[in-house]
Amino acid sequence: AGTGVAVDVTADFTSAAWHKLCLNAASGPLLALTGRPHEVLHAPGMAELALGLMRECLAVGRAEGARLADSLPDEILAGLLAAPGGAGNSMLYDRRAGRRLEFDARNGAVQRIGARHGIATPLNAAVCALLEASVDSAAGGKR
């Protein structure tokens, strides 16, 4: 109270965390892989790829007990597409700065938890493999 920081309190941390992960699992790797800000999501095929990543995350989150609407990926994508063209995210800026990337904590987690529930997550696995290979060569192995 009394600060410029807005805080939302929720009794359902699981749902809130998976909601945020749906956003991060899509935007982070796509911006980092392309080296481009949010405007890249307007390129052919990129919005569909983002939706696919989020739909996998949604399914895994639900298996973990998160209450997530079917419309969540579309809502998140609409927000991403409305972002200023030059806006980026932490994974893009970390990639540009040669810092360690957090894709394993995001997309890798979706992949591992999905496997535990028998849920296929091929898109999340693919972006992990691509990022792993690209950071090995570009950043001297920094993940």
How large is the share of residues in beta strands? under 5%
Query: Which geometry do the CA atoms define?
Result: globular
Task: Write down the oligomeric state.
Answer: single chain
User: Low-confidence spans: pLDDT under 50, at least 5 residues?
Assistant: 139-143
What is the count of β-strands? 0
Largest sheet: none
> What structural class do the secondary elements suggest?
mainly alpha
Fraction of residues in helices?
55-70%
CA gyration radius, whole angstroms: 15 Å
Labels describing this entry:
0% strand, mainly alpha, 63% helix, 143 residues
How are the secondary structure elements laid out?
Layout: H1 13-34, H2 46-63, H3 72-82, H4 90-97, H5 103-116, H6 122-138
Helix pairs in contact: 1-2, 1-3, 1-4, 1-5, 1-6, 2-3, 2-5, 5-6
Describe it.
The chain is mainly alpha-helical and 143 residues long. It is 63% helix and 0% strand. The chain has helices spanning 13-34, 46-63, 72-82, 90-97, 103-116, 122-138. The longest helix has 22 residues, at 13-34. The radius of gyration is 15 Å and the shape is globular. The model is unreliable at 139-143 (pLDDT under 50).
